[in-house]
Amino acid sequence: MPHRERTLMGPGPGNPYPEVIEAFSRPVLGHLDPDFIALLDETNERLRQVWRTENRLTFPVSGTGSAGMEAAFVNVVRPGDPVVIGVNGVFGERMCDVAARCGADVIRVEAPWGQPIDPQRLLDAHPSPAIIAVVHAETSTGVRNDVAPLADRPDGTLLLVDCVTSLGGIPVTVDEWRVDIAYSGTQKCLGVPPGLSPLTFSDAAVDRIVERPSSWYLDLNMIARYVTGEGARAYHHTAPISMIYALHAGLGVLLDEGLDASWARHAACGMALHQGLEAMGMELFAADTHRLPELTTVWVPEDLPDGLDDATIRRTLLDTYGIEIGGGLGEFAGRVWRIGLMGHTARQRNVTLLLGALGEVLG
Ligand code: PLP
């Protein structure tokens, strides 16, 4: 396989921070080695700072963002539980699929793709649901769904939030928003390759963990004994050692920069890209009040020169300029582009590079 450099401006992965790549060269230790345990504890502490939470059960699930999604539902859903889920893109749909497989009575609250979900509709959908679940940053559409108003839900209802594309890129404050369960993915705004899913559970969510979840691998009763260090560190599955080195390093970069500075950097790059695309006569897809800076959706121009279409343009960007951008999903395949500015990729130089390259390709 050729060794090519790419500027990863698709919906994820983004380019990892250089410090993260360096961390992969550390010697592999055993998962019970005291040095590794110290690094794992420090990683979990860094995650608490990034999630803005005091939650004890905060750690990276082995697996990508979808493993975090499954861990979130499979540990707390009991058959027949009413679970309200916001659906305005692919990942809200995926939540419905996962929750239904756990036996939930899924109550869908839909909004058109490209539009945010009104939080009041989620609150009004059922008088006392077991869970209200929503995707904070819908990567399929570039839309932010508001989470803060969901703090005012009935007592006893858990709030479960997908933060795969939001953590590190836009404000996420787990304790202030009274989020009970949240998961993310390393490959987006955390600037680390895919492979781990940071997860956090409030004490209320921990109290609701079922005795015997239908997944053995994602059973938090067992995993917690290893990751939290309360009692003996009991082996459950072999921790992905090098990925945890990488996440530890990525969180270090993020915390050194500061969360506020990282959010501001993503916001500035996103704004520059939005303005640059509009200045080229292109039309943005996501509702202007709820656009994500880290994931921009834009309509593929209709009046393209002969011989150019969605696929040829994306292929030329890749082959000639080394830039990856993403295509649309579902009914927007071929009609929308998804352009990521996540983690280390969220730099003004990449905005300028893409706008220049796109200008040359479109002529
Ligand atoms: N949720 C959201 C919002 C995502 O964007 C993604 C992936 O793009 C996922 C969940 C699933 O994560 P993964 O593909 O890492 O399993």
Automatic annotation (TrEMBL):
It comes from the Bacteria. Its cofactor is pyridoxal 5'-phosphate. Residues 31-328 form the Aminotransferase class V domain. The modification N6-(pyridoxal phosphate)lysine is found at K188. Keywords: Aminotransferase, Pyridoxal phosphate, Transferase. One of its GO terms (molecular function) is L-serine-pyruvate transaminase activity. One of its GO terms (biological process) is glycine biosynthetic process, by transamination of glyoxylate. Substrate binds at R338. The keyword Transmembrane does not apply. InterPro entries: Aminotrans_V_dom (IPR000192), Aminotrans_V_PyrdxlP_BS (IPR020578), PyrdxlP-dep_Trfase (IPR015424), PyrdxlP-dep_Trfase_major (IPR015421), PyrdxlP-dep_Trfase_small (IPR015422), SP_NH2Trfase/AEP_transaminase (IPR024169). Belongs to the class-V pyridoxal-phosphate-dependent aminotransferase family. This is Aminotransferase class V-fold PLP-dependent enzyme. It comes from Actinomarinicola tropica.
